[in-house]
What we know:
Residues 748-871 form the C2 domain. The chain has 1209 residues and is mainly alpha-helical.
Amino acid sequence: MAVFYNHFMGDGFRKQMKENRSIEELILMFAAQSTSVLKKEPTLVDDAWKVELNNQIAQFVRMLRECLKGVSHVSPELNSRLDMYQTKLAPPSSHDSGHDTASVTRDRGDSVSTGQTINASVQDMPLAMTVANLFKIPEQAMQNEVDRLRKICTEKAALIDLKTCLKNINAGAPFPGRREDFPSEAAWTQWRTLETSHLSQLMVAMVSTNPELAKSMSSDDGPTHTSTRPSSIYSTTRADLPAASTRHASTASTSSRWSAMGGVSGDSFSEDVDEDVEIRVGHHFTFIPQNPRRFYKRLVEHCIVAELELLYSPEVDDADEVPLTILSQPHVQLINECAVRWRIGQPYRATCFLELIKQFYERGEVPMECIPVALQAVTKTLHDLEIDRWSIQDAELLASIYGSLYNIFLSSLYHAMESLPNVKVSEIQPYLSVLDHIRESGLMGRFEADINSRLIDLEDRIRDVSVQYYQDKMQQLQSAPGVNRALPLLLMTDEIEKSAKQLDKRFPEPLVGRIDLVSLVVEMQVPLFVADLQKSAKKLLESSTNGPAPDVPIQDIFSLYRRTKTLLEMFRAFCPKGQVELDIGQFFMQYVLRWLSETDSKTGQWVQAAIAADKFQAENAEGHSSSIVDLFDSLRSPLAFLQELEWSDEYQNARFFTSLSKTISKAVEQYCRSVEELFMTEMFPRPTEYLQPQKSSAWLEKAKQLTITSEKKVEPFNFQPESCVKLNNVEAARKLLDNLYNQMQVDKITEVLAACPPVPEKVERLRFLFTVKIVMAENLVPLDSSPSSLLDTFVTLSDEAGNRLVKTRTIYDSLNPRWEETFDLSVDKPLWLMCSIRDRALMGQHDVVGRSFICLNPAQYGDYLTHDVWLNLESTNQSNESRILLRVSMEGETDDAQFYFGRAFRSLKRSEGDMMRIFVDKMSPFIRQSISRFVVKSLMKGGSSGLDYNKALANVTGFYRSALGSSVSEVQVPLPASEKPRVRPEELSDVEIERAIVPLFDYFDANLQILNTHLSETAKEMVMLKVWKEILTVIEGLLIPPLSKLPSDMKPLSDREVDIVFKWLKFLRDYFYANGEGISLEALQNQKYRDVLSIRLYYDWHTDTLMEECVRTMQQSLREAIPVKKRVKTVYNQRNLGTIKERKREKKQEKETTSGEIILCILRMRPNTQEFISQQLEMMANVRIQQERSQVAQLQRKARGSGQVAPSQ
């Protein structure tokens, strides 16, 4: 047995059995395995192994029978064959006869006895006792009935019944079946083959058990069939012996017992039955009732009733387990035996049982769990025999039962929907399993119309329950106390979403293949919610604006937006064909606009709070302080809030971000103004104990004292670290603003607005942004009569009402001041401005030097080019031609994010430039004092300057070690203190020339140390470059006067003086270069540096030669090099760091040609050249005007060709 078990568990054996599906094949395999094992057993001598082989096979068959006894879906035919094999393999008696003389009763109590003597006691007949108990027949009455039927219900009568069935089939009689009962020829052929085989097997089993039946049939019905019987198809070897010898063969033969299982050939019965005239066609049976199916159904019903009565009787404990098949083993055996004898096919057995269970379930007598068990029996039958091979009657009966079950459980599902949306899977899963089983059977086609109608009713019921649940829940929420009218709606959104997610999780697939619970619930509840939301619109708006602490906080409104948006998305996902009449963007847009307005009003508070909490101390390596970080954290908060809204309308979303961009620009501009005010306070502190002259810096006062008193030591101006940190903050703000630009995706927002232009509700007046640069003034007239008096001037621009719009810084001690400051003015109509130049007074009102007027008219500047406007000043001295240069440009002020970010970047850039200019302005007076004609003349005179030369040289060589932290490898050895200059004044050495500007190096040494320590790397480099530019400007001013058509009283320097100036330039260049550790040579030797060097080339030329060269150079420049004037650098060019860097690269690539202008400046120092200079300047102006007009015409033609207005950027 163990060896066979190992073989049985192998994959190959399982595959073979799956293909054969025969119990005989299994028994033969066991016999083969047992034979090989027993032959090797040493304890079994001679032929003892054969006896043991028969015993092993008999035990194996008995085990199979016992295992299959309690299995409900095992066919009765299989059980009958196993019973027959078990009987034949029983150990033989000591008699030589093939039959026992003693009474042998079969375990099952079949009507077919195994011996010639049959025990007549009903107590030894289990099936008879089962019938007595079933119908409550007393034992004696049952015994009497058995005794009465013994002569009629014989084995021979049973055999004749089987033969009659076989003959009816061949004759086409109604019972047990005919061709008309089946839907196809194939189904009829398959049933006929199987039925004939089963009948033959039963007859073979009976004859094999009782061979006398064959003799009696032969003697009574015709000649005995004496032909040699073929061996069974299940035998391992072919048996050629006659039946008698085979049956009485010695047990020594391997197939002695096993071959007997073949008995009489089934084919012989099939052949004889048609020739047997005694067997009549028709319903002439002893054991088979007139209507077998009706009797069978009634029998099963009686068995189930009996089982249920026993189940509910006091004899059965509640804890006892009851099979879901209801039927006990004795009843199952009785039903199976009747099914075999009455020729009830397996399809009808399974269908009949399902029908009865359905009826008992409808009456509430069996639980729901019995239905799936009955369906499993049908499923097993369908697996063994497809529905198209069933008889028409059985198939129609099954379809009818399925239809009835479908209606029953669809009704149960209908009533289960009462608990929506809290229905649980466990509550309806049994119904769904049955419904799905029936739906997948394919038998419901005839009921399709009725099923569709019932499913529509179910869907309507789900909708009705969903509506009722929503209304009850909303009424409950609204009846709760409180003034927040948004709260019930918020809670309802949570309830709807929670229910939908719960149903979607519990029922991911549609019920019965069609009913989507989530879709039906969402389809009804979301529109109801939207309707309630729209009804509450007015109350929500009123409650959210009824004071500083409204009943409905704005946060709840936005939470309601998010929840509503989620519900609408859920509605579109589950109900793609549904429609909800709600423009969610339009509904909530007014709340967002109000929130943006409130955010804009808080901007000033954010800026003030950030600055108030800042000590302006560097917090990291970049050198900026906390205020700029705090401010941009505050600005990122509304940006993140808007992004989290995920606004549904793309255009509205772009408008929101555009409005927020305006707020950001406003905050940045305010921060720039506030920081600049603090910066100016630090750079120009007001005196506390005495009135310090405000028109000059401390270093300028010290320089004047040095000139007058020849003082050797001058204290440097004390730059404060806080001032450097403020400049670092502005630089850091540009990076933070650029990050904000990218986070907001400003370019994408602008594209959206351009692609989806709105339909304006009203036409708004266009606004224009004017950029006014106050460049310089010329030939200002002192207010007093002294010819050597100078002015401390600043410029103001005022509107028609006298409101001051613009004010520049003060330029001290100059009649030709250069302010170079830029301002933005936004206008929507022509604006007249008064330009006033005032002389700063120490006390009282500032005196007016001159004034003029300019009109900022958009029509006049519509070419979007830069215009140089010279304004003649009205002053008390009418004989002098004083004038001021304004550089004016205009661009369209558009309401888009790029424009606002451009303004913010421009504000930062100008603040950065103004603060750097202040740093340079603090150094400029001493630079001008140290590099001046007075110093040159003094050096040429050869007088002692009163300076400590050794200290000066030491300061020069040690500057970058202390100020910029560099290590200078070359050390200059100073002269001994006792050594005096040995060179005559007219033969100055480089050392002496350098000594003359040692005070300037000392000044740099003291001031650049603070800048190097506290400025960021970028800011430090920009400040140094501006200082270098100032140095170049001062040196240029030493050599030539500025370009103008007015006469100049400046005299040219001698050759030696020019050499001194250019050697100073070389010393200062090397100083800033610092052997490669300072500013790069590329930055130092810029265009301005090259222009200054070119002065040396033309400085000593003859006047006529200069004029000729100027004409030639001007003509060549105008013909080849001067490009068409470019449009002004607009706000759009500065909207982020990328566009700013691109603009710088383009500017760097532009080639400047200024040699002609330099020659004109030199000619101003020559006599009789004023007329020539005026002609050249006028010619240059006319050419420039023509080029500008040509460019404007070209732009207009291009605009007309594209059908657009010339863009402002």
